[in-house]
Design brief:
Layout: E1 3-8, H1 19-28, E2 31-36, H2 41-53, E3 58-62, H3 74-84, E4 89-98, H4 106-123, E5 127-132, H5 135-145, E6 152-154, H6 161-169, E7 173-176, E8 201-203, H7 229-240, H8 244-258
Parallel strand pairs: 1-2, 2-3, 3-4, 4-5, 5-6, 6-7, 7-8
Length: 262
């Protein structure tokens, strides 16, 4: 199976000691390409540094996570705009709303979210979206911008049926992570998988977070990595009643089109 991980936080400090080994294990598992998530100006710059080192394997998004929304101002927007125009950037984001943590005030989150959607419209790049415990506001903002957006993916979708229906009604692509492999909190996602057309479904690890709990044997640490994307693929395939190879091929083709990868 050839797989593309659409969301891996490879600039996280936990990958600093052994990133070449991480990428080697990913390649052996069939995960040859990854999109490194930009969650701040500094993280975006770091993701672009990785792209320069691995230009045929690693790509970047340019964005400001809602946790850092308080940092959003004219200067930050200008820096993000410049970064988003660089070779190797394939989407704006990670951007959106997170009312679960509220590390930034909600007003700041809404401003930063709208600003990055405007940037995605201006540059005609797809947008990499984050939402947690903020569905109503998230959808309200998105509805205003969706007609002008090139495309958008609901990264790490973990919501309920009505939330999925709302996302699909806006023709958002859906990113599924190892959350679906969690028997404690992800079981509700299993019957929702057939609702997503193959052309709007992608998979991701969100590494180093969200290690699939169904992995056997369990890794020696709790760090997730792109090699484990195969576990997500197999779980999603079972939920959809598809062969893993069919699911992998469809997700890969969708990812290539969505992010305009060569």
């Amino acid at each position: 199976m050839e797989l593309i991980d659409i969301g891996a936080n490879l600039t996280h400090e936990s990958f600093a000691p052994d990133l070449p080994d991480v990428l080697h294990r990913a390649s052996r598992a069939g995960v040859h390409r990854m999109i490194v998530t930009g969650t701040s100006v500094a993280a975006t710059e770091a993701a672009l540094t990785l792209h320069a080192e691995y230009p045929d394997r690693l790509y970047a998004t340019a964005g400001l996570h809602p946790h850092h929304a308080s940092d959003y101002d004219t200067g930050t927007r200008d820096m993000l705009r410049e970064l988003a125009t660089r070779h190797g950037v394939v989407a704006v984001g990670e951007c959106g709303l997170d009312y679960y943590r509220n590390y930034s005030p909600r007003e700041a989150q809404l401003k930063a979210f709208a600003g990055q959607l405007e940037l995605a419209v201006e540059l005609q790049l797809p947008v990499f979206l984050h939402q947690r415990d903020a569905h109503a506001d998230f959808m309200a903002v998105l509805r205003d911008y969706r007609p002008r957006l090139k495309d958008g993916v609901a990264h790490c979708f973990t919501g309920q049926r009505h939330e999925l229906e709302d996302c699909l009604a806006l023709d958002l692509a859906i990113g599924i992570t190892g959350w679906i492999c969690d028997e404690r909190r992800g079981r509700h996602l299993l019957p929702l998988m057939p609702m997503i057309t193959s052309g709007r479904l992608m998979i991701e690890t969100d590494a180093p977070y969200l290690l699939p709990r169904s992995l056997k044997p369990h890794p020696p640490t709790r760090r997730n990595e792109p090699a484990f994307l195969t576990e997500v693929a197999q779980t999603v395939a079972r939920a959809r009643g598809e062969a893993p190879e069919v699911l992998a091929s469809a997700c890969t083709q969708t990812t290539l089109r969505f992010f305009a990868l060569a």
